[in-house]
Amino acid sequence: MKTALSIAGSDSSGGAGIQADIKTMSAHGVYAMSAITALTAQNTTGVTDILDSTPAFLSAQLDAVFTDIFPDAVKIGMVSSSELISVIAQKLRQYGAQHIVVDPVMVATSGSRLLQENAVQALKTELLPLAEVATPNIPEAEILAEMPISSPEDMERAAELISRRYHCAVLCKGGHDLNDANDLLWKDGTGHWFKGRRINNPNTHGTGCTLSSAIASNLAKGMDLEEAVRRAKDYISGALGAMLDLGRGRGPMNHLFDLKSEYMKEAE
Ligand SMILES: Nc1ncnc2c1ncn2[C@@H]1O[C@H](COP(=O)(O)OP(=O)(O)OP(=O)(O)O)[C@@H](O)[C@H]1O
Ligand SMILES: Cc1ncc(COP(=O)(O)O)c(N)n1
């Protein structure tokens, strides 16, 4: 069985973070592991509290995973401080981690800040250069590229700039509107658009976490980056299209949309 590791924060409401990652990896038939960077007290309406892991404890979790079940791919999500970012970068280099997907989580859909302002530089210089692909949404790409984005051409300019500066492929996600949920992959000096069909579902909590975990799962299975992204987008469309409606705010997606077993029918 292929294996993947999520290095991310816990979302007590189960829609984003580690919980979304494990659901996504499991739905892809990949064995999921975790190294938790922070606990969040969070639901569909917002984040009420955050408790960071200590650098030493995060380091111990990474040692425990890498010295026993080596992951075929690694996804990195919420990491709030530069100290934790440095621990991750050092451990990934030490163990020679493969197929690293960096989701540069900065602000939750609900508006709460998940990355300290003074940690943006560490994210850029220590994590991005380790990434096979980074997956910023438009506001995150604006911060990483240090330019405003208000058109598809701006997305191309920003993705190219981030890719060139930090030596990684960049998937700039268009979920934050501009166009029709179209995402741009910039790799080796050229851009490729993945056309999306915008699904009229307000429950988008965890779409970014889910997309990056689906890409990591597909890379773990041996797909090339373009195929991994194309299939991950199909997964998001299926999970959004299943129109789950839970909670009083921006609810989570349904990761069970494609499982046709008797157990699932009974659960409906
Ligand atoms: N309404 C939608 N219909 C179809 N696809 C969508 C929709 N909203 C987002 N997506 C897709 O979901 C993926 C995540 O994109 P998005 O820009 O929402 O990331 P994000 O902001 O990091 O997510 P998050 O909500 O977790 O912060 C992208 O592939 C995007 O195109
Ligand atoms: C622990 C954690 N990680 C990531 C996100 C971002 O996801 P979203 O933007 O959908 O709220 C989150 N809310 N919580």
Q: Layout of SSEs?
A:
Layout: E1 3-11, H1 17-27, E2 31-43, E3 46-52, H2 55-66, E4 73-76, H3 82-95, E5 100-102, H4 120-127, E6 133-134, H5 138-145, H6 152-166, E7 169-172, E8 183-187, E9 190-194, H7 207-220, H8 225-241, H9 262-267
Parallel strand pairs: 1-2, 1-4, 4-5, 5-6, 6-7
Antiparallel strand pairs: 2-3, 7-8, 8-9
The structure holds adenosine-5'-triphosphate and (4-amino-2-methylpyrimidin-5-yl)methyl dihydrogen phosphate.
Protein name: Hydroxymethylpyrimidine/phosphomethylpyrimidine kinase
Catalytic activity: 4-amino-2-methyl-5-(phosphooxymethyl)pyrimidine + ATP = 4-amino-2-methyl-5-(diphosphooxymethyl)pyrimidine + ADP; 4-amino-5-hydroxymethyl-2-methylpyrimidine + ATP = 4-amino-2-methyl-5-(phosphooxymethyl)pyrimidine + ADP + H(+)
EC number: 2.7.1.49, 2.7.4.7
